[in-house]
Amino acid sequence: MINGVNAKDVAKLAGVSQSSVSRVFFGGTPVSEKTRNKVLSAAEELGYNPNEFARSLITKKTRIIGLVMKGVENPFYPQVLKEFTTAFKKLGYSILFVQTNNEEIQKEDIDMLLNYNVAGIIITDAMLSLKVTNDIKKSKIPLVLFNRKAEKNDFLSVCTNNLDASRQIANFLHQKGCSNMVYISGDRNTSTSRDREQGFIETLDKHQVEYKIYESDYSYEGGYQTAKSIVLKGEIPSAFFVANDIMAMGVLDALRKHSIEVPLATKVVGFDNIAMTNWPIYNLTTWEQPISKMVEKTVNYVMEEIDNYTGIAGNIEIEGQLIERSTT
Amino acid sequence: MINGVNAKDVAKLAGVSQSSVSRVFFGGTPVSEKTRNKVLSAAEELGYNPNEFARSLITKKTRIIGLVMKGVENPFYPQVLKEFTTAFKKLGYSILFVQTNNEEIQKEDIDMLLNYNVAGIIITDAMLSLKVTNDIKKSKIPLVLFNRKAEKNDFLSVCTNNLDASRQIANFLHQKGCSNMVYISGDRNTSTSRDREQGFIETLDKHQVEYKIYESDYSYEGGYQTAKSIVLKGEIPSAFFVANDIMAMGVLDALRKHSIEVPLATKVVGFDNIAMTNWPIYNLTTWEQPISKMVEKTVNYVMEEIDNYTGIAGNIEIEGQLIERSTT
Question: CA B82, B86, B89 angle in degrees (round to 5)?
């Protein structure tokens, strides 16, 4: 449509119906080879370039996936964005990127995605209000919550198995002989932080190990300040389990600032296995989130739902693994 | 269009022409208030929800900006993505995100953007072939190279003033008494790395200060390995100017690994002022790229060109500033 040539012009020059032109470019009942050839030569002659919008009006489908993301400051999420973009590109789909600064996704963001008639929606680190949930359900657009559990089983969620991960981390630190521990939480209204907390403390309870819980916010600064206040109170535990890597790096820097040696005086475990945890200055023991597998499951689900919408909901949990480095 | 109701249905129920319906929803010659009311009540009754695709077929314009990005591993770029998304959102525009893994943008990526009839294109850290350049010029879609200079003045480029920045950095280190220096380059086929190198060495030449140039790749690992090899050769200079922050952090970690004290034994200056440079473990002296101003200039240009395409090209350079921290 860029040059103003449309299907009607092509049909006229080819001496066929407009419906034949549509069927050649957008599918539907097949046309004869003769008709197809006529259409293609006319299209070439006129420079007809059917765009996605024309296509979508006929097929009622777009090849756009809306991706809603909050925290690009945490390197975990740019990595997730990259993997989704690459995976969907292979399937001929593009990413409409929505940045939200709110914990809860605003109705206007979802309205925009519905307005573009996106084929699917993926939300990484934000929450949906009931109103927005209903709008999406009505539109029959598949939606996946990535790295967040669905609150009411409204949608499909794809996570690593956070409960199992934090149980294994608790057992690992217990076996290392840590006798009192600290859990530094992320935003406590996120399912990821709650699950990591639950698995950790129920395992420590079982082993009768003491612990304290400090609330933080999934940011480097949050981890740094929380650890600093713990150090200043002189309450250094034998181990910290920190709800994500970027906070754990803040914890390590605060401990280093106060000359507290890791892993001798205390141990630190993070969560995510972002690339920076492997930097020699951190070399952080952490839990690897299997991003590629999580992305693959999400993409498969979205593509299946695009083909045949069922609205099926539930939680898919994928096993991760402990990456032992020098902070334990 | 989601529910299958179209402008024709609305026109029929309202008893007005289809053109009136278009003009109510998509602009053009105004309609009378009476007609407008008829159209709106019919639209409401039928649940008519004109989507962006329908809109774009009539107005021949979309409200999508294509953003092409390569290196999301460098936190500078997720920050740029966030600022562009926020700025365009305020203007009612959305971001179609394209991730390229190649130095040179592939024709298929640009074809996809043209296919979506995007209103504008922004490219952050990749290059355009001549073929692709011609396709974009022909489409009359405004394009901005962000943080890269245009090779042949084909397009508008928006950068910080890299030459001036590196001259000031050279003067600053010279005044600190550094008598031999090292420049660690980024990808040497990028304009940013070349300009930073040029400004730096021409100023050192003027002051008759010795220097060596090492080629690296804008990655943390590249900075780490380059500094490590310099240390192992025993050729530690009195200062390092490193072409971006993420590499400079690698340099700092390599120096720390070999117990070389910064800023006593050597000094380090980075470039970008990404958030991490302020982390206490790095506290890196660097050059602040004025991202917000660069984004503002880019957005203004794109919006003006959308209104009235001129295809004007050239380089806009915005002054940044030195941020002195503890590595100098």
Answer: 135
In sequence order, the β-bridge partners of residue A315 are A157
* B148 and B190 together in one domain: no
Q: What is d(CA A208, CA A159) in angstroms, rounded to the nearest whole number?
A: 29
Place of tokens 């101003």: B293
A228 with A308, same domain: the answer is: no
Q: Is B270 helix (H, G, I), strand (E, B) or coil?
A: coil
Q: Are A72 and A78 in contact (CB under 8 A)?
A: yes
Same domain as B172, residue B210? yes
| Contacts A278 to B, Cβ<8 Å | none
One-letter amino acid of A288: E
Residue B258 domain-assigned? Answer: yes
CATH number of residue A213's parent domain: 3.40.50.2300
Encode pLDDT of A305-314 as tens digits: 999 999 999 9
* 3-state SS assignment for residue B160: strand
Q: Tell me which residue in B77, B94, B275 faces A73 most closely, judged by beta carbons.
A: B275
Q: Tell me the shortest Cα–Cα distance from B126 to chain A, in angstroms.
A: 15
Is the Cβ–Cβ distance between B127 and B149 less than 8 Å? Answer: no
CA distance B201 to chain A (A): 30
Same domain for B253 and B141, yes or no, is no
B2 touches chain A (CB under 8 A): yes
pLDDT tens sequence across B248-307: 999 999 999 999 999 999 999 999 999 999 999 999 999 999 999 999 999 999 999 999
Distance CA A281, CA B252 (A): 9
Query: Whose structure tokens read 């910064």?
Result: B262
If we measure between CA atoms, which residue out of B123, B133, B119 comes closest to residue B67?
Answer: B123
DSSP state string for B284-323: -BEEE--HHHHHHHHHHHHHHHHHS-----EEEEE--EEE
Determine contact, residues A181/A242, Cβ cutoff 8 Å.
Answer: no
The complex's ipTM? 0.84
**Strand bridging mode B286-288 / B321-323:** antiparallel
Determine the structural domain holding residue A21 and report its residue range: 7-50
Average pLDDT, rounded, for chain A: 90
In a domain? residue A84: yes
The identity of residue B287, as a single letter, is W
Instruction: Using the predicted structure, report yes or no on whether residue B44 has a pLDDT greater than 80.
Output: no
Q: Chain B closest CA to A52's CA: distance in Å?
A: 5
DSSP-H helix ranges across B207-284? 220-232, 245-257
Instruction: Copy the structure tokens of residue B175.
Output: 């005044």
Locate the chain B residue with the closest alpha carbon to A223. Answer: B279
What is the domain-level CATH number for residue A21? 1.10.260.40
Together in a domain, B181 and B276:
yes
Query: What is this structure's pTM?
Result: 0.86
Residue A9's region, left for phi above 0, alpha for psi from -120 to 50, else beta, is alpha
